[in-house]
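tool=predict chain=A
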Amino acid sequence: MYGPDYTKLSNQFYYITPNRDIKARYIAKLTRNMLKDYPEIMNRIENFCSHIYFDEIQDFAGEDIDLIEEFFMSNISVYCVGDNKQATFSTHSSNSKKKKGKEIFKYFYKNKDKFSLNIDTSNISRRMIPELAFFANLVYPNNPIIGIQKGTVENMGVYLILKKDVKIYVNYFKPTILRFNKTIDTLDFQAINFGESKGMTFNRTMIFPNKTFINSLNKLKQKPLKAPEKYFIAVTRAKYSEAIVVDKLLENSIFSKVELIIGNTIINASKYLVT
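tool=predict ok
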């Protein structure tokens, strides 16, 4: 093998297993070292790539960000897209707090001159109608979003519905069902975990929340959630409506009790009051 032997470090397998598989946690580090030892690699990439796109940049961390910086300093146009409100996952187990989750955006702002970065921000969401965006801003009030989706479908908005009415609602509207995690009972309906739904868009959703979210519905205006990221993801997946399954309907400054017409059936529900 010409050049450094990346299979070993101090006579121990480090980057690569005995089966010659790259260890996931060292992919970025290995790649950076190879770019350093073999400059022709980046030259070759520059010859056939004019643009590189990184989505969900808030999920990158530590040495993965270091690797992206190598491309910042190349002749390739690099585009990174992300949402700091959806930082729930990490591509790399890093101790670098400055290059992880929500802190990545602060890091980019701090180093934008160093890497000649152009940073654009937007709070416009084309996914959802305004009412859903208003509710999402209660869940995560920092830097509120604006929904500009339009629609004329029936029963648009955010509703609380009782467990006993779930089957009626599902059979008629056929929403995509989201749950906080696999421990949540979804009444035998197939569901997607909140975190796994990131990046997805649906016409309607039904949300099976955990106790933390249920208990917060009475006081979202006064006391925001301490860790709202997963909940924000859940309430921003739908275009037109979302139904949150509860044991008891609410009537307060956020919700008003209504009669919800579902086909030929009427059920009691609570509807979110746009404020």
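The mean pLDDT is 90. The chain has two domains: 8-110, 124-272.
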